[in-house]
Amino acid sequence: MTRVDSRPPPATRSSRPPPLVLEQPALPPLVEAVNLTKEFRVERRLFARSRYLHAVEDVTFNILPGETVGLVGESGSGKSTLGRLLLRLLEPSFGQVRFDGTVITQLTDRELRPLRRKMQMVFQDPYSSLNPRMTVERIVGEPLRVHHLVNGDQQMREKVSGLLQRVGLAAENIDRLPHEFSGGQRQRVGIARALAAAPSFIVCDEPTSALDVSIQAQIINLLLDLQEQANLTYLFISHDLGVVQAVSHRVMVMYLGRIVEIAPTAALFSASQHPYTRALLSAVLQPDPTRRRLRLVVEGEPPSPIDPPPGCAFHPRCPRALAGRCNQEVPTLSEIVPGSGHFVACFNPHG
Ligand code: ADP
Ligand code: MG
To answer: Which residues of 4-17 are buried (b: 16+ CB within 10 A; e: fewer)?
Structure first.
């Protein structure tokens, strides 16, 4: 496997600060996932026993205030499902999510409502996530209306105009419809909407994957600027390792629903320990003609999440698998050096 990454890393501002996790160990996390698990029931043929697809399996991690945690993994590894679980857009099958100290997975809808506005999502495809018949004012203003954050039409227009300016769009765009914008501008509208209710946590789910390379860096820089201005905390999902490297303080790697490695960004990119992470970093980035986006390719096919291999799910593709161990036991995350913040779930990691 050779690295043929034709795309230059996005021209983001100089570099990120060192990992918050090492700087401020006493800071309580903003978001915590504890043994988070999501199984989808998949109906098969008539009268056949229904089976379960393990989309997210026993995931435990946290995100500190102001931090960006990058999440990478092949398509189908459970990234979007994990993001949606954190925002409680999906109910977990097992485990907990805590937001700012509150266990949100046990709240009723009514109890959850005041927290909802603190947690938002930016989607991959700004076109399909924006209602094509709604004006920008209605799209961006909807969270303001839902959470009763404005009084009257005049204040709504003022607030939405201000939000448009914050994301680099002229206030005159307020009465336009989504199709009147370019892809990058539409993503700015999506970001303005996510920002409207003054959130503290945003799940960015492949926010630049549908955009031209030239536009991607602008959107990344906007997200970084907004983070600085508003002390936002991000989970940044992407299959584009260059983008993840540019924006993240820490990076998590997911494989078949599990986190296999998590580390401060520099450590992950210079000294990854999990054979799967190594494979990802050296994988060919191939254009996927059917989906007009880049797709990571690691040798061999990922196994089915309906019938995952026993032991470590990566063992059938792993060049370092140990017979009698990796095909039998599930490795758990352990810190390679105490205090390093570098965790790997592997019985035979790269040293
Ligand atoms: P990723 O974002 O990493 O591509 P997803 O979280 O979208 O992965 O999906 C993880 C797995 O869960 C995939 O196998 C996908 O087909 C499955 N999945 C996602 N949503 C559902 C659903 N609502 N019902 C059944 N299976 C689902
Ligand atoms: Mg996804």
So the answer is: ebeeeebebeeebe
Q: Is the CB of 75 under 6 A from ligand 1?
A: yes
> How high is the pLDDT of residue 301?
75
**Of all protein residues, whose CA lies closest to atom 10 belonging to ligand 1?**
78
Distance 305 CA to ligand 1 centre (A): 9
Q: To test ligand 1's pocket by mutation, which of 52, 53, 90, 91 has the most ligand atoms within 8 angstroms of CB?
A: 53
- Tell me the CA–centroid distance for residue 82 and ligand 1, in Å: 10
Q: DSSP letter for 179, please.
A: G
CA 111 to centroid of ligand 2, rounded, Å: 28
Separation between Cα atoms, residue 230 and residue 301, nearest integer Å: 41
Pair of tokens at residue 4: 């043929």
AA letter at 203: V
C-alpha 183/C-alpha 216 separation (Å) is: 10
Per DSSP, the chain holds a count of helices (H) and strands (E) of 11, 14
Q: Dmax over Cα atoms in the chain, in whole Å? A: 69
Q: Which ranges in 59-212 belong to alpha helices (H)?
A: 79-86, 109-116, 126-129, 136-146, 152-166, 183-195
Q: Is 296 in the pocket of ligand 1 (CB under 6 A)?
A: no
Atom of ligand 1 nearest to the CA of 81: 6
**140: Cβ–Cβ under 8 A, 6 or more apart, which residues?**
160, 163, 164, 189, 192, 193, 196
Question: Which is the closest atom of ligand 1 to the Cα of 90?
Answer: 23
Residue with tokens 């709240």: 107
CB atoms within 10 A of CB 251: 26
C-alpha distance from residue 195 to each of 166, 202, 296, 307 (Å): 9, 9, 31, 40
Cα(177)–Cα(139) distance, integer angstroms: 9
Predicted TM-score of the model (pTM): 0.89
Look at residue 2 and tell me whether its pLDDT is greater than 50: no
Count of C-beta atoms within a 10 Å radius of residue 164: 21
* Interval 37-68: pLDDT, tens: 999 998 777 777 778 999 999 999 999 999 99
The phi and psi torsions of 189 (rounded to 5 degrees) equal: -65, -45
**Mean pLDDT, rounded, of the chain:** 88
